[in-house]
Design a protein that fits this description.
Number of helices: 3
CATH class of the largest domain: Mainly Beta
CATH topology of the largest domain: Jelly Rolls
Oligomer: single chain
Largest sheet: 10 strands, mixed
Radius of gyration: 26 Å
Structural class: mainly beta
Number of domains: 3
Distance between the termini: 50 Å
Number of strands: 36
Helix content: under 10%
Shape: globular
């Protein structure tokens, strides 16, 4: 046991340099950091945020003012205060607080959005991290949607809510929500949302808490709308309001708990790196979220455990393929070439192999290695898929045959010479000539495939409206395979 603990600490030190991002979502390999605010300096960065001033609805009692926002010691601070008789642009308010947003400055469609936040213990505060549409494409709220990464009821020190709102009107609307415990909201936690075409996932400290992928009626548009338009970010802390439970919905019952401060360490936005999306075949090569997508396979009594890239061998079997770290469901296409790369660390000499095969064990490629131990090693190799295309190929990192442990990270299996493609492709009001049309997210089309032409659409989602037509003698196929080449 001592041997294991000592080397767990050693590996933690070695692996500190492996992670490129601090994002907590499930698949960091396909994302790149596109925007962030680390709240350095002593002033809010007005190239990134705008203040919102004045009152707000929902029964809230505050006036939003600039003076409630400050930046110091590496964090943003939003302070709620008791300010009796405050003149809020001609309206009397007894409380003040802060509200900032990226509206008109920065807005995004799809991605992973995350903030590290510490909340106050104050019964009548309502802090939130959320998004609204840059443009009301489908109509005013809630028709164009709202994504609440988190809302917090100040009188519940353990719980938050994440939610999505949409609908036809304020009285005819829909939502999907989840209430969850984070233990203690007055401590730092990471709150994130992964938003893709037709699906929204909420995360807290890297753990998935809620998924929605059906924006059913009432809906001012059709699925995947309204969540297919650009949104901007909001950070604010309301005081009082209908979201809170009585008596705390009236902040006059909690005056003794003010001032209260919401702190934000950083906000980060990640979006899909189209080059990685189309080239990378392995999922979660950095083992985020407890190694999601990977599992240990064993034969002939071999056994071992895997956690965060660290593989312990309990029973090695008699050959290295008897125990393997495995991932299934890879798309490998006939005639295409691929490159595998990874990092590894062992203390002692260890023989391993990588086998890429079909699910029945027929090998497409075999690559043996002997690790010398004592230092971090980087390895890579290339191979060509000479077998028929396999949509469910298997990657095996074989570690059996001896008892020695091994640590690995940054696994990658990339297609060589692949080409980027756009997220959204519109092919409308035209004759569609023969060819393959690819996009990562969605193809929209109402054109005509004429006689003798052969057309292929390859994307995550294909939307054909009522005017789309395939003439007799033409050929048309759709493959759910983003950016295939």
């Amino acid at each position: 046991m001592k041997h294991y603990i000592i080397h767990s600490i050693l590996l933690a030190i070695i692996f500190c340099s492996f992670s490129n991002y601090s994002m907590s979502q499930t698949n960091p390999n396909i994302y790149e950091l596109v925007w962030e605010d680390e709240f350095e300096g002593t002033n809010l960065d007005l190239t990134k945020w705008k203040y919102r001033r004045g009152a707000w609805g929902g029964g809230t009692q505050q006036c939003y003012i600039e003076e409630s926002i400050s930046v110091s010691n590496g964090t943003l601070k939003i302070a709620a205060e008791y300010s009796p008789g405050y003149d809020c642009f001609g309206e009397n308010k007894d409380f003040t607080s802060g509200f900032i947003r990226t509206r008109d400055l920065h807005y995004w469609k799809f991605g992973y959005f995350e903030a590290r936040v510490k909340l106050p213990s104050s019964d009548s505060t309502w802090p939130a991290f959320w998004t609204l549409p840059q443009n009301d494409v489908y109509g005013p709220w809630p028709q164009s949607g709202e994504i609440d990464i988190f809302d917090h009821k100040g009188h519940d020190d353990s719980g938050n809510r994440s939610a999505v709102h949409w609908g036809n009107s304020q009285t005819d609307r829909q939502q999907s929500k989840v209430d969850y415990s984070v233990g203690d909201v007055t401590q730092w936690h990471n709150y994130g949302v992964e938003w893709s075409l037709g699906e929204i996932k909420f995360f807290v400290d890297g753990q998935l808490v809620h998924t929605i992928n059906d924006f059913d009626d009432p809906n001012a548009t059709q699925h995947p709308g309204p969540f297919d338009i650009e949104n901007y970010l909001i950070l604010n802390m309301a005081v009082g309001g209908d979201y809170l439970e009585a008596p705390y919905n009236d902040a006059n019952n909690s005056i003794n708990q003010l001032p209260a401060t919401m702190e934000v360490d950083w906000v980060r936005v990640y979006q899909i790196d189209s080059t990685n999306l189309i080239c990378e075949k392995l999922y979660n090569g950095e083992f985020a979220n407890n190694g999601a997508g990977w599992f240990m396979s064993n034969f002939f009594g071999a056994s071992g455990t895997f956690s965060n890239g660290f593989i312990l061998v309990d029973n090695p079997g008699t050959a290295n393929w008897h125990l393997a770290l495995r991932q299934e469901g890879l798309l490998l296409e006939n005639g295409k070439s691929y490159e595998v790369s990874f990092e590894a660390y062992t203390e002692d000499t260890k023989s391993i192999s990588i086998i890429i095969s079909n699910k029945n064990g027929t090998q497409y490629h075999y690559e043996p290695y002997t690790f010398t131990g004592g230092s971090l090693e980087n390895h890579s190799f290339q191979f060509t898929m000479n077998a028929p295309t396999d949509v469910n190929a298997v990657f095996n990192f074989n570690v059996g045959g001896d008892i020695n442990w091994v640590a690995v990270n940054n696994f990658s299996l990339k297609e060589l010479n692949c080409l980027p493609c756009s997220p959204i492709l519109d092919i409308n009001n035209q004759t569609i000539i023969s060819g393959t049309y690819s996009s990562s997210d969605q193809i929209n089309s109402n054109g005509v495939v004429i006689t003798n032409d052969t057309v292929f659409y390859r994307s995550n989602n294909v939307k054909l409206n009522s005017n789309f037509k395939v003439e007799q003698g033409a050929s048309f196929e759709v493959t759910i395979d983003p950016c295939g080449n």
